[in-house]
Write a structure and sequence with these properties.
CATH class of the largest domain: Alpha Beta
CATH superfamily of the largest domain: Periplasmic binding protein-like II
Largest sheet: 6 strands, mixed
Helix content: 25-40%
Distance between the termini: 40 Å
Number of domains: 2
Strand content: 5-15%
Number of helices: 18
Low-confidence stretches: 1-80
Length: 438
């Protein structure tokens, strides 16, 4: 049942409501390159799920209408939609649990309940591809790494705005199961998903603590670690082959390494920077200017999904991996592990969790984009090795960066509409103090 208590109407049961596991956990927080949707193609062909309009359009273009017609029985949309005559909303995502709110909102019918017509989401294999799609308008909304969104606006002058956080925490540094701890990885290589990422920032906080210097080129000495940018989907194989000594990335690739017994968690990023934003929701300024009501309804749908992900973790994991056309390609046990397996003695004993008192989860969800995070991120990026450079941040006012990059009115309104800040586990003041401890 959706968060607002209304059953979704007009949804296609074959696609929107694939079976998912019985809810076994109810816990609300009370503390403070393209692929198709299945990853079948590396060339951008999309034969994914959902919208009747999209399926018919694809069918007509590829001559598959006859084959698709049986699948569309009962998929008539009886809920009026109002996308301001712009056509279905185009969503871009990577096959990682960062995308959960965008995808759960689809599966649970929250977009439809808000009158938002959504096209079949487009799966991208790497951050370069999805960033370019956002920049060029090939997608209307996507989850992007927060530092990438900052770089996109400040360096490339792209007309984009961060309108909400997509999730918090949800990443880790993984090393080989029988490998050395980070302090002993001098002379080795570690993979990162993108230079402008919280993963790179977090890793370099850890490297500084153990006295290792990050480098981008050449062979690392015994006091250095070489960083290489790698698509998340390639990291596990690279770790298994010994091409890298570790990787820091979003889930579920860390959980997959655990399940396959290829790697172990060296440190969770949320245990370094409490409740950090990883991915944020980004749209083009044109969409905000022309269709603010559409943006508001979209963010309200995503915020409903965030509440669902927090309250029914096993069910959320099941929604992402169930059915004949799962939204995430990773095995269900790994995705389930991301949502439910964190506060356990094994991680405290191993040092992967050093701050159990922080009371966070492996991944958390809430929409408000805190200014203090943006400002601290700017400060941290100034001293973080990135390619080609972070010098563009040297003379900027972090507070002004937040004002220019972030439009928080939609998130504020969605939070108010859905029960207030307390329901999302955040302060009523919409302010906080950043807590960072390596």
């Amino acid at each position: 049942m959706p968060i607002d208590g209304r059953a979704p109407t007009g949804a296609c049961p074959q696609f929107l409501h694939a079976p998912f596991p019985q809810i076994v956990r109810n816990k609300m927080r009370s503390h403070n390159h393209n692929h198709d949707i299945h990853g079948h193609s590396a060339h951008g062909h999309s034969h994914s799920i959902l919208s009747r309009r999209t399926l018919l359009s694809l069918a007509g273009a590829t001559g598959l209408a006859a084959g698709l017609s049986p699948l569309l029985v009962g998929c008539g949309n009886t809920t009026p939609t109002a996308n301001d005559n712009k056509g279905p909303l185009k969503i871009g995502y990577l096959p990682i649990t960062d995308a959960a709110p965008l995808l759960v909102a689809l599966r649970e019918g929250y977009y439809e309940a808000e009158g938002v017509d959504v096209a079949a989401p487009t799966l991208f294999r790497g951050w370069d591809a999805i960033t370019e799609a956002v920049r060029t308008g090939k997608v209307d909304i996507a989850h992007l790494l927060m530092p990438t969104a900052l770089q996109l606006r400040m360096i490339q002058k792209a007309p984009v705005k961060v309108i909400a956080w997509n999730h918090m925490n949800g990443s880790a540094l993984t090393v080989a199961t029988d490998g050395r701890p980070l302090a002993e990885l001098g002379g080795s290589t570690i993979a990162i998903p993108f230079w402008y990422s919280i993963h790179n920032v977090s890793l370099q906080i850890l490297l500084a603590k153990v006295g290792l210097k990050p480098i981008a080129d050449g062979q690392p000495s015994s006091s250095e670690v070489k960083l290489v940018v790698m698509a998340p989907a390639d990291m596990l194989a690279s770790l298994a082959s010994g091409a890298v000594a570790g990787y820091i990335v979003a889930e579920p690739f860390n959980a997959v390494a655990e399940v396959k017994e290829v790697g172990r968690i060296e440190r969770f990023t949320g245990d370094i920077w409490k409740d950090h934003a990883c991915c944020v929701l980004v749209v083009n300024e044109k969409l905000i200017a022309e269709s603010p009501d559409l943006v508001q309804r979209t963010i309200r749908a995503v915020a409903k999904a965030q509440l669902f992900c927090e309250s029914d973790r096993s069910a959320a994991a099941g929604l992402l991996t169930s059915g004949s056309r799962p939204l995430l390609p990773q095995a269900a046990p790994a995705v389930e592990r991301v949502f439910t397996h964190y506060d356990v003695p094994e991680y405290i004993d191993s040092g992967a969790i050093q701050h159990p008192e922080w009371g966070i989860d492996r991944v958390n969800f809430q929409p408000f984009p805190f200014a203090s995070f943006t400002e601290e991120l700017v400060v941290r990026l100034r001293t973080t090795l990135v390619q080609p450079s972070s010098k563009f941040l040297d003379d900027v006012d972090p507070a002004e960066v937040h004002k220019d990059l972030v439009h928080d009115a939609f998130a504020r309104q969605a939070i108010a509409d859905l029960g207030g800040a307390a329901k999302f586990g955040i302060p009523e003041s919409f302010t906080r103090t950043e807590l960072i401890s390596a």
